[in-house]
Amino acid sequence: MFSEAVNVSSKITDILNQGNIDLLKNARTLIYYVVDQKDEELVAFAKQEGIAWAEHALTLELKLEWVQAIRRTLWHFVGILDVEKNIMNDRTEFYEIEKTINDQIDKFLNNFFLNYTKYKDTIFLKQRDMVDHLSVPIIPVSENVSILPLIGTVDSYRIQIIVEKVLSNIADSRIHTLVMDLSGIALMDRDVINNLEKVLAGVKMLGCKTVLTGLRPDLVRKMVHAGVCVEENAETKGSLQETLKNIF
Predict the structure, then answer these.
(1) Architecture of 136-247 per CATH?
(2) What sections of 58-178 are H helices per DSSP?
(3) Is the N end or the C end of the chain the one with fewer CB atoms within 10 Å?
């Protein structure tokens, strides 16, 4: 088996230490389930392996090489048994054995990849939700006032998250004033500026006042060129410190 999986063989100890995954023990388990056609156990084992492999960020390339090595090794011993005990009497019987073994191993691989992918997708979505939450940090400073300090680049994806988070937060918290500080904005293109106007309109429709602070000259110029007028839906102040001083 080791000669069939050169890349994996050199990493058996590393994989055991990294993810507590015993490749040799698992190979024996897989062969047992395949030979004895333990379908339910095979699928459950594939799920367990897929999640463990994804959880410890082990590559699919190594897993595929290892399973293919197990497949070739299993067929090697089937050939030896056939020579010694003539277990395959005719061609039909050979094809039946071939179908059984390969179908079982393919079933393991399919379920392994499915659960590996599901786990990775779940982690990705959790991480994206966390990033989305951190990218729209609405901070309550009193019962009626919250601050939204925007930092970095606001692109078309992030502005949609801002729309969703801001409107949901206002509806849930029933705040009276949202202070949106734009002093940390690095870049905001024209489409995003147009969407910002919609955010302000939505906030006003929910009965909340928006105070914009930290408007830099370059951002103001872009708003003017885009024909965006924020005065109708928001109040503007020079700095966040000035705004909070006035509010409190």
Answers:
(1) 2-Layer Sandwich (3.30)
(2) 60-85, 91-135, 156-173
(3) C
Interval 146-154 mean pLDDT: 85
Verdict on whether the full-model pTM lies above 0.85: no
Supply the DSSP symbol for 136: S
d(CA 51, CA 40): 17
Cα distances from 136 to residues 158, 163, 207, 220, in angstroms, run: 9, 10, 20, 22
What is the per-residue pLDDT across 187-212, written as a single tens digit (0 to 9) for each?
777 777 888 888 899 999 999 999 99
> Reading across the β-sheet that carries 139-140, which strands appear in turn?
139-140, 145-154, 177-188, 209-213, 234-237
CA–CA gap between residue 156 and residue 223 (Å, rounded): 16
**Amino acid identity, residue 147?**
I
**Where exactly are the structural domains of the chain?**
2-128, 136-247
Q: What integer pLDDT is reported at residue 34 of this predicted model?
A: 86
179 strand-pairing partners: 147, 211
Q: What are the structure tokens assigned to 42, written together?
A: 């095979």
The answer to whether the beta carbons of residues 48 and 21 sit under 8 Å apart is: no
Distance, CA of 95 to CA of 170 (rounded, Å): 67
